TrEMBL record:
GO cellular component, one term: plasma membrane
Name of the protein in question: Uncharacterized protein
Protein's membrane topology: Multi-pass membrane protein
Annotated source species: Candidatus Aramenus sulfurataquae
Entry keywords, A to Z: Cell inner membrane, Cell membrane, Membrane, Transmembrane, Transmembrane helix, Transport
PANTHER family tied to this protein: INNER MEMBRANE PROTEIN YEDE (PTHR30574), SULPHUR TRANSPORT DOMAIN-CONTAINING PROTEIN (PTHR30574:SF1)
Length: 402
């Protein structure tokens, strides 16, 4: 179980450098202004999916975790998750990263997340909750196969494990093409990957990178010229910076870390911890709490590790630690001003919707989008589509006016 601390530490530190701990990063994703998350996730899938299915074809055992495909519950959960993401700028896991980075509104996000998880625990007891998870439930399906036990993905009739590997290669090529051709910035022409390979940027992309460095370090600790922090924070705006490949390599680090977790017979998930806390505090005898208590693994440990890794990175690497000063995300401030109470309400309410949706769907950005899509799970792909649709629509409504 304690290995979860190390796994969480690696992911927390890498993602903090990535910028995910800052809610502005995910708000800009929701506004479709900065697609770094999309590029890095698809690149991580392109690297990790053939690895896990290739090793599986060779007989290596893994703890498979594709979520059950119950179409209606996952659809509604994904829509709620996407709306909450656009409002709060947080994933379940990035809340812990934000706490490690010293972000004040993350404190309110924690309470919103626990309350959202508690709401699903109560709803699960009802006929409505049971209907959501049982209607159109086709089991744990992946592209070309089905999970029949925690350690076995059974290929569909006529297919073999080698065929699953072939499907994974085609899937990886598709993910790589997305990572390569989707421009990182609105108004730009190149992804992070193409910028590194071609070693050139448009003037718009240079300005966008500088703007990104500014909001990532808003209210943060000072750093010296030529330091590691400068290289990490200003890596694209600096000519021939030796760290220019780091942000791309993070995608592989995260993806392969999830493969390692599954090899160690655990699964990668972040929102389960909130249900575990809610169950312990409010509903210890409820049916859903009992399911969580029985099935939870190292998720609380990995969440603590995520916080610790983010804190380490924010202090010693990026210097983005804000010491819980009142830092309002720029996109939020442009729309709603600098009123702290309004921002805290958005953070609390957004994470409430997000966790309610995550638990309704049976997973979050970690369990569905990263781990699920890495396994080519149909439930993960449905959840991802619902999240992005809801996120984009909500952001357009919420942040569309000035």
């Amino acid at each position: 179980m304690w290995v979860g601390l190390l796994i969480g530490f690696i992911i927390g530190a890498a993602a903090e450098i990535w910028g995910i701990a800052n809610p502005e990063t995910l708000i800009r994703l929701a506004k479709w202004e900065d697609r770094l998350f999309v590029i890095c996730i698809t690149l991580g899938l392109a690297i990790a999916t053939p690895v896990i299915y290739g090793l599986y074809a060779l007989g290596v055992g893994f703890h498979w975790s594709p979520k059950p495909l119950y179409v209606i519950g996952i659809l509604i959960g994904g829509l709620l998750f996407g709306a909450g993401l656009a409002l709060s700028g947080y994933f379940p896991g990035s809340i812990w990263m934000a706490l490690g980075e010293g972000r004040r509104d993350a404190i309110y996000a924690v309470f919103g997340a626990i309350l959202g998880a508690a709401t699903w625990t109560a709803l699960f007891q009802t006929s409505v909750g049971q209907w959501l998870v049982s209607t159109l439930n086709f089991g744990s399906l992946v592209i070309g196969g089905k999970k029949i036990s925690p350690f076995v993905i059974q290929p569909l009739d006529g297919l073999t494990r080698l065929d699953l590997f072939g499907i994974a290669v085609v899937y990886a090529v598709a993910m790589f093409l997305v990572a390569y051709y989707v421009p990182r910035y609105k108004g730009g022409t190149r992804s992070c990957l193409r910028e590194n390979i071609e070693k050139r940027m448009t003037p718009i992309e240079v300005e966008k990178h500088k703007d990104t460095a500014m909001y990532l370090t808003d209210g943060a600790l000072p750093y010296e010229s030529g330091s590691t922090a400068q290289k990490l924070n200003e890596y694209y705006a600096t000519e021939s910076n030796v760290t220019r490949w780091f942000m791309v390599s993070v995608a592989g680090i995260v993806g392969l870390t999830v493969v390692l977790e599954m090899f160690l017979h655990q699964i990668f998930g972040e929102s389960t911890t909130d249900s575990w806390i809610a169950g312990m505090l409010f509903f210890p005898n409820f049916k859903y709490s009992q399911i969580v208590f029985k099935g939870i693994g190292w998720e609380p440990f990995s969440d603590i590790g995520t916080l610790m890794g983010s804190f380490f990175s924010a202090i010693f690497l990026t210097r983005r630690f804000t010491a819980f000063r009142n830092i309002i995300p720029p996109s939020w401030a442009k729309r709603f001003g600098y009123n702290s109470a309004v921002r805290f309400l958005g953070s609390f309410g957004g994470t409430y919707l997000m966790l309610l949706g995550a638990r309704m769907a049976g997973g979050c950005a970690s369990g569905h989008i990263l781990s699920g899509d890495l396994q080519m799970a149909l439930s993960g792909l449905e959840f991802t589509a619902a999240v992005f649709a809801s996120m984009l629509i909500t952001a357009r409504i919420v942040y569309g006016k000035r």
